[in-house]
Amino acid sequence: MELLSIKELDLASKKVFIRCDFNVPMDEYSNISDDRRIRSALATVNYCLDQDCAVILASHLGRPKGEVNEKYSLAPVARRLGQLLKRNVIMAKDVVGDDAISKANELKNGEVLLLENLRFEPGETNNDEELSKKLASMAEYYINDAFGVSHRAHSSVEGITKLYDNKHKASGFLLSKEIKFFGKLINQPVRPFAAIVGGSKVSGKLEALINLLPKVDKIFIGGGMAFTFLKQMGYDIGSSLVEDNLLEDAQHIMDEAKKLGVKFYLPIDVIAAEKFSEDAVSKIVTSQEIPSEWMGLDIGPATVRLYREALNDVQTVLWNGPMGVYEMEKYARGSNKIAHFVADSYATTVVGGGDTADLVQRVGLDEEMTFISTGGGASLELLEGKTLPGVAPLIKE
Ligand SMILES: Nc1ncnc2c1ncn2[C@@H]1O[C@H](COP(=O)(O)OP(=O)(O)O)[C@@H](O)[C@H]1O
Ligand SMILES: O=C(OP(=O)(O)O)[C@H](O)COP(=O)(O)O
């Protein structure tokens, strides 16, 4: 699949809109714990600045659900970006309001403007045409460099592409790199091929799992993903994260895995805690025996041993989603152990997702992996064989 490339555009001294994925992990004080997604966008931003462009950057951060919420402001990203670019980054107070529009209009060549969180606008996730039009009115060229969100048909990712012809839109360097890498990986994975899937975005990833089954040989489940399966198996999961409306889907996935001969691993023990807190009372329990009101916040040591054994013969691994609440040291052990097994293996190791990349970086193993992708959900959907809605309009005819 060949994409329209930024290199083929005549960008010199033009105004360019770049959709980035600056959805970076932050602590409670808005300190960015892993700036990989910002650093990954620099090649495209610097390329545009070298062409003397006026650069308008836009991203979402978290899921503020169409409302302005200071907690999800991109201001910390603007500061970090300024440090990395070694130049001032102008921050708009809104997305397509008076402030953003006037700053975009006044933006000079060589200047960088960052719009506020796109998801402060309810139209963003609804792929609203009016919002796309307002965003597109800011610049003559559109670049998608937001691999991590290219599986979402959102206004700044999909809708906006309809407002530019092929001479005025393209993929950025990051998006191209990711698509090229996964293209190769998916066509000829060396087998056995395993997917390790965890984290907290249960609903999206459960859907991905069903399509992943025919592509992989082994699936390892951890993190908040596990409890929907464990509940469906009849276990008491206490107050662990669960998607009750997806219990049947979970059963379907387990049945299909059996039918297809895909080895499907679930945690056999977990670290359960009385509450979602670092200082909560916690203990190791079997997956069948999570006390009511307690919640599973990490995989347990028996699961770690089981997964290590079963990962031994694997030749290709795609990992998305932490095995536990890795941000709290007390529940980070499972994720850290898995990170070490994956890094130490001779397999091709691909890690995807903002938080998964963060945890691998925290244990200093990022250089040990074959490839760290900026997209978790996006890479799972690529692996399913889907063409991502943000990528389809950028495929060369
Ligand atoms: N058992 C669990 N219960 C609740 N949250 C969990 C659990 N395990 C992991 N998480 C959370 O999942 C989040 C990451 O999930 P996700 O966004 O799906 O991963 P990624 O960003 O790598 O795609 C982390 O904030 C982590 O604390
Ligand atoms: O962090 C992201 O996805 P990921 O956690 O699957 O890597 C992207 O920024 C997409 O965010 P979303 O899942 O809220 O649409």
TrEMBL record:
One of its GO terms (biological process) is gluconeogenesis. One of its GO terms (molecular function) is phosphoglycerate kinase activity. Keywords: ATP-binding, Cytoplasm, Glycolysis, Kinase, Nucleotide-binding, Transferase. Pathway: Carbohydrate degradation; glycolysis; pyruvate from D-glyceraldehyde 3-phosphate: step 2/5. Substrate binds at residues 21-23, 37, 60-63, 119, 152. CDD domains: Phosphoglycerate_kinase. Its main location: cytoplasm. GO terms for cellular component: cytosol. (2R)-3-phosphoglycerate binds at residues 37, 119, 152. It is an enzyme of class 2 (transferase). ATP binds at residues 205, 296, 327, 353-356. Its EC number is 2.7.2.3. It holds the Pfam family PGK. It catalyses: (2R)-3-phosphoglycerate + ATP = (2R)-3-phospho-glyceroyl phosphate + ADP. It is found in: Cytoplasm. Transmembrane segments: none annotated. Monomer. HAMAP family: Phosphoglyc_kinase (MF_00145). Belongs to the phosphoglycerate kinase family. This is Phosphoglycerate kinase.
